Amino acid sequence: MGYGRTRAGTWAGFQAPRGECVDVDAGPGGAGGAGVMRLATEPDRREQGQGSPGQGAQRKEPETRPRAFSGIQSSGRLHIGNYLGAMRPQVALQKTHDAFYAVVDYHALTSVHDASELRRLTREAALDYLAVGLDPEQSTLFRQSDVPLHTDLCWVLATVTPLSWCVHLPTFKDKKKDQAGDVNLGLLSYPVLQAADIIMYKAVAVPVGKDQVPHIEFAREVVRRFNSIYGETFPEPQAVLGSAPLVLGIDGTRKMSKSLKNHIEIFASREELCARVGTMVTDTEKVRRGDPGHPGRCNVFSLHRHFRPESAGAAQGAGGGAEGGPGELAADLAEISASCTEGKLGCVECKRRLAGVIDAHLAPLRERRAELATRPGRVDEILAACAARATRVAAATMDEVRAKTGLGRITYGVAGGGAGGR
Ligand code: AMP
Ligand code: TRP
Question: Is 175 a catalytic residue?
Fold first, then answer.
């Protein structure tokens, strides 16, 4: 069991100490403003999820690491944008934080109204995250609806949240367009439930992609409001962005997204992956093979960079692997940049090399996912054990909230039978 693994958080992965804001505006992928931090380093795949998943799912209390929380949308087929923007930073954070990651099926219910489909998507999301390196010995991975206290807290927060905050959120306006035939009340209160998710665990760090920053800012406002009415109760959470907070799609201009169909799936086969990378739009000013290119303006080059986490790799001193060690990869990157700029490297060859690097990175993840899929019972066990731990923490928070707001005191049951259950 992984009980001995807990230790005081060092915030080792950060450029700024907790509570401080750093300038994270790093070009097109950057995002600035209060409440946003940047993760300095991320692991490459060699150090992700090395242990067999699910030995522990419990840990020695009290846990002293600072808390992190993130929600995992169970909307199917994850892409490289999800991976680089959210999953990789989430996996990185579990080293320094007591991380709670929930497959947010209550949120999914705002757009999925088919029971077996919702169960399937929830299970798939849990598998995806275990496959990319989420380690249930270090993190608490649970299904949101197994801890129904989230909706309890959501209601309390709804009563201190001005309606106008929800109505004017750009993400609500987008959702109204995306699902014009189903603009339900849940869509409006979506960010309130998201705030409840985070503060239930008094999380200070929320690893997400850039598009989620408005929701974290919203949660901070809700916290201020609650604390000003009922007294200091919750810390203000901060969004934590990884090195690729906004990944562009194969069109090279818009955010990579499943709905825009400009995505590259992370669990696609090698053939599909190569085909998708082959259709990527490159530097539009480089028309012929011999034209000088501009790597800084090319989305293909930016993916070359994101799949070579030089700083993390160098710090670990990791080496070997099918696609070469970190030093080799960094040298390779410099060579690609130089030969593209000089007009020696053609875009077709550049993309062929990119597909190779991505495939070498993702192949072990695909294998791990396939292996996990053969053990559904194991995934259920992990989710159930983690839900029990999440419920213990959530119950303590709700005791406090109920006492402060004047609601009744109750005894909490522990739900959770795995994603396949019921
Ligand atoms: P979604 O698939 O939109 O539910 O997003 C799941 C997580 O992935 C969120 O934290 C998003 O911010 C992040 N994400 C989604 N698309 C991208 C992208 N193109 N680039 C970076 N992060 C992304
Ligand atoms: N809205 C997030 C997304 O679309 C999912 C989510 C739900 C979440 N609750 C959360 C993210 C709490 C961070 C923290 O990806």
Answer: yes
